[in-house]
């Protein structure tokens, strides 16, 4: 090609193919993809069954079983501590392995619990550390991608996030089947095995140490409040978007079954369509973000969430609920692909801390959604409770719009 030939923009299909090829050719990227799938598979298998385990095996009341999910509120604090340690030492995969082993021990302890207090204590302390494993993987991925710049690097993150979503699609079905065929304790034991198995794809891999993005700042110094302010603002807005998920999963099935009297097959299809749409849209979100900007696309994604909850609250038909779930697939297709990328860009001097804060914020969102849903359903009823996540999402749209103007990417 002559030197003065015009440079053509890469075809989106070629970009996507090169991202897949890049993922398969790298032990780190390939191993991380399999690891997050196994982690999500195990955790999502246990999450819908843990309340049944507490009630059926340990004699908990329904209200006491519901309080179990509050034990995840320790995850942001413990995740932050792990992230700071990782940024100080650069030992991403070492800490990932420690967190995975902690997760194995935690789920094993819950599976063999004989007293009601044991799962609560184990979840609050041991599983709080275990939740940081995924954030350490994404920090290690960031270091590897920074070491080898490539136009398809965002596509690698998208593929890893697709694997994570795939685990969440398969896990609940697999967990229900295994519990029905064996027992809830056996299912929890399988979760422990999956949690430990995530270390296998990466073996004894030791990636290169992270590049110093701000050479004048010592690695051991924690970022100040001013440096963390954009990340904390973004994470808070993400919490507002995510808070609708616990409300939806708690009350949408009840609404479909008890008020709309939809057949079980239709209800299941409504719930199941969201993750399928999400998986399809994750790679598309990366391509669109390259054209219009990451933050701008997340503003659109949050607006999808507002529209989705308005569909839940106002339509009263199966078609309206399908439309809402498809829109929710759009929300999580955008945020699953771009959320962790944005968080790391907002705190480039401490990417493990950024990853831990962002990924562990779902615990805060679940608590906010649970509290808001509980209060909302008693005052607004069904389907009026879905106006609450619509309002929260609208606040997130405004906030992300302001942040988008400030960041300009």
Describe this structure as you would to a colleague.
There is one protein chain. Helices cover 79% and strands 0% of the residues. The longest helix is centred in the middle third of the chain and has 29 residues. With 409 residues, it is an all-alpha fold.
Strand percent estimate: under 5%
- How much helix is in the residues? over 70%
Summarize the biggest pleated sheet: none
Silhouette? globular
Could you tell me the number of beta strands?
0
Write out key terms for the chains shown.
18 helices, disordered N terminus, mainly alpha, 409 residues, 79% helix
Blueprint (SSEs and pairs):
Blueprint: H1 12-25, H2 27-46, H3 50-58, H4 62-67, H5 75-89, H6 92-111, H7 117-130, H8 132-147, H9 153-181, H10 184-197, H11 225-242, H12 244-259, H13 264-292, H14 294-314, H15 318-346, H16 351-379, H17 381-384, H18 387-407
